[in-house]
């Protein structure tokens, strides 16, 4: 078999992999990025395509522009199940053309020295002496297998986890997940019959009947084009996602002209805390493969970028030290948990709580402001659910109709704080991982008992 040597192999050119490549290009490393898809389809996956502006700012990445940008966003409108309450949460963002933006990042990385091979799949890891040392890849153009030896492999294979799932199962980065910690989602992009009233606002509809454990969305892509879809909780034995779509799409997108559909499709998204460790000897896992999506809304593009950024920093430092061990790559975890992972852990608990609420509870909670827009914004930005003292009286009065809801909410807020604190004290080296992991699991199992009461 043909053999080639690289410093770094990146498997997967989605938002996570292309971000890592973009940050690492032109830094003196010999890098190969591979993706199974043809170049023109890289970045093309079922998605709502909404990304908050802050991610680009925080990571020093270019804003989408030209054909990469479909709509500038000013905020989100959130609707209660009975549609009687509408909340507006302000926040700038973009409705993007994901393939165009991803391919732009890849092209810029390629122009600065990263080799990109499309139509090329990682078949299996090369694993020796406890280290990931590369991958056997298959080049579909030449129909040949190639052994790629690399000091570090970045696995960015999305929800498929198609590389790390073939590693020895005892490695912490091979950690599997419970299907209930995922969302099954489906969307269609189509033209509308008339101009969209407020194209700068994303609309989200919460309803446990039409989207159990998830929500419906209506995301404008310009004045007469929309991305409309829904997510439902995985592992629950619900009917197929298409059944829900066909039954309820008119409730949320009466103006959608399905005869002028541009694209449709479904996929899964992880809705949990990140992998306990994103790294091991010679390997870093990023993006959906590392469970980096937001547990409450399932948005994963911004956090895939954060994980790619953190991985890139760790790779550069590892090459400076000439050390590719888990210990050396560990700073990926510290960087990621500090920027996003701690919030994710806290929001995983919030998501578990929300999924257990009935439509009645949500209608009541939104109408009476047991939780308010500001709380939601705060929770989604920082992962903190602050139930401030000044508002206590109002909340107690609001909660009188549903004392158990208010009681649970207070408990949830405390557990969210506790799990976030655990993540803020993430171990500084792999030695501390075992004890820390058991503390996290214990806290989550206690939380589940309290919330299911
Ligand atoms: C319906 C739906 C709606 C969503 N809406 C939003 C939203 O509005 N906003 C948001 O931010 N997020 C949203 N998400 C989540 C978001 O799409 C993902 O979190 C994000 O795209 C993950 O990026 P990634 O790079 O990790 O993975 P991916 O984009 O899946 O990229 C993985 C890449 O790896 C390649 N690959 C896989 N295995 C191999 C292999 N063995 N060899 C070579 N290549 C391989 C694939 O071809 C692919 O290109 C949504 C998800 C779904 C399913």
TrEMBL record:
GO molecular function: oxidoreductase activity, acting on the CH-CH group of donors, NAD or NADP as acceptor
InterPro entries the record matches: DGGGPL_red, FAD/NAD-bd_sf, Geranylgeranyl_Rdtase_fam, Geranylgeranyl_reductase, GGR_cat
Keyword Zinc found: no
Top-level taxon in the UniProt lineage: Archaea
Keywords: FAD, Flavoprotein, Lipid biosynthesis, Lipid metabolism, Oxidoreductase, Phospholipid biosynthesis, Phospholipid metabolism
Signal peptide: none
GO BP of this protein: phospholipid biosynthetic process
Limits of the Digeranylgeranylglycerophospholipid reductase catalytic domain: 181-269
Protein name: NAD(P)/FAD-dependent oxidoreductase
Native source organism of the sequence: Metallosphaera tengchongensis
Organism ancestry: Archaea, Thermoproteota, Thermoprotei, Sulfolobales, Sulfolobaceae
């Amino acid at each position: 078999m043909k053999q080639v040597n690289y410093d770094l192999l990146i498997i997967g050119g989605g938002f996570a992999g292309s971000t890592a490549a973009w940050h690492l290009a032109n830094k003196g490393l010999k890098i190969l990025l591979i993706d199974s898809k043809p170049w023109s389809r890289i970045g093309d996956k079922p998605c709502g395509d909404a990304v908050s502006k802050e991610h680009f700012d925080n990571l020093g990445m270019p804003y989408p522009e030209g054909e990469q940008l479909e709509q500038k966003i000013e905020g989100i409108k959130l609707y209660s199940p009975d549609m009687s309450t509408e909340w507006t949460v302000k926040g700038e963002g973009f409705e993007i053309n994901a393939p165009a933006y991803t391919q732009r990042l890849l092209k810029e990385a390629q122009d600065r020295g990263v080799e990109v091979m499309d139509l090329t799949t990682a078949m299996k890891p090369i694993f020796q002496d406890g280290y990931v040392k590369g991958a056997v890849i298959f080049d579909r153009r030449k129909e040949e297998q190639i052994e790629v030896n690399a000091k570090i492999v970045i696995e960015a294979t999305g929800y498929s986890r198609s590389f790390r799932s073939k590693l020895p199962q005892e490695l912490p980065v091979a950690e599997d997940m419970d299907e209930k910690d995922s969302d099954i989602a489906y969307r269609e992009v189509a033209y509308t019959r008339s101009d969209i009233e407020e194209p700068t606002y994303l609309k989200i509809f919460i309803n446990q009947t039409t989207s159990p454990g998830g929500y419906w969305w209506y995301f404008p892509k310009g004045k007469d084009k929309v991305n409309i879809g829904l997510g439902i909780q995985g592992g629950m034995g619900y009917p197929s996602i298409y059944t829900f779509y066909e039954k309820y799409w008119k409730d949320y997108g009466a103006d959608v002209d399905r005869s002028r559909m541009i694209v449709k499709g479904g996929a899964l998204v992880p809705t949990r805390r990140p992998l306990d460790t994103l790294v091991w000897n010679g390997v870093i896992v990023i993006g959906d493969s590392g469970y980096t999506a937001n547990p409450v809304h399932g948005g994963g593009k911004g956090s895939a970028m954060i994980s790619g950024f953190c991985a890139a920093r760790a790779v550069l430092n590892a090459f400076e030290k000439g050390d590719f061990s888990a210990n050396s790559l560990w700073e990926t975890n510290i960087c990621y948990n500090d920027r996003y992972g701690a919030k994710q852990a806290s929001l995983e608990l919030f998501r578990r709580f929300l999924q257990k609420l009935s439509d009645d509870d949500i209608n009541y909670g939104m109408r009476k402001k047991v939780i308010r827009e500001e709380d939601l914004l705060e929770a989604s930005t920082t992962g903190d659910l602050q139930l401030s003292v000044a508002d206590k009286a109002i909340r107690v009065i609001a909660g009188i109709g549903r004392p158990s809801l208010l009681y649970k909410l207070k408990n949830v807020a405390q557990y969210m704080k506790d799990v976030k604190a655990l993540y803020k004290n993430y171990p500084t080296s792999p030695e501390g991982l075992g004890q820390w992991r058991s503390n996290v699991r214990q806290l989550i199992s206690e939380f589940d008992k309290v919330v299911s009461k």
